[in-house]
From TrEMBL:
Name this protein carries in UniProt: AI-2E family transporter
Record-level GO BP terms: transmembrane transport
Assigned keywords, A-Z: Cell membrane, Membrane, Transmembrane, Transmembrane helix, Transport
Species name: bioreactor metagenome
Principal location listed in the UniProt entry: membrane
Membrane topology designation: Multi-pass membrane protein
């Protein structure tokens, strides 16, 4: 879905109209739809995405979640968007600088 390009607002933008349309048919159906979207989003956001992103950029899922939380707390939506790339850059810099300092100690 196009709206899910924006990771935080996308699922809400998709779920709200679906829930309202289901409510027009039956309140029970609307509750089921809302519950489905809630459970699906929780599984996607807290389990699948950290695993997938962690494997693709080789960061531990806990570090991904922490970077997202810190980014959101400090910079809001923009922090969420830039948290993972910044964490990946920090990891590369740390590895590069750590190995550079170890190489100097050996000589």
């Amino acid at each position: 879905m196009i709206a899910e390009v924006v990771p935080v607002v996308g699922p809400i933008v998709v779920a709200v109209p679906a829930t309202f349309l289901a409510y027009a048919d039956s309140p029970v159906l609307a509750l089921k739809i809302a519950l489905f979207y809630f459970v699906f989003y929780q599984i996607d956001a807290h389990y699948l995405m950290p695993k997938i992103m962690g494997k693709s950029i080789q960061l531990h899922p806990v570090l991904l979640i922490l970077s997202l939380l810190i980014g959101a707390k400090l910079f809001g939506i923009l922090g969420l968007l830039f948290a993972v790339p910044v964490a990946a850059v920090c990891k590369v810099l740390y590895k590069h600088l750590w190995h550079f300092s170890e190489d100097k100690k050996v000589q």
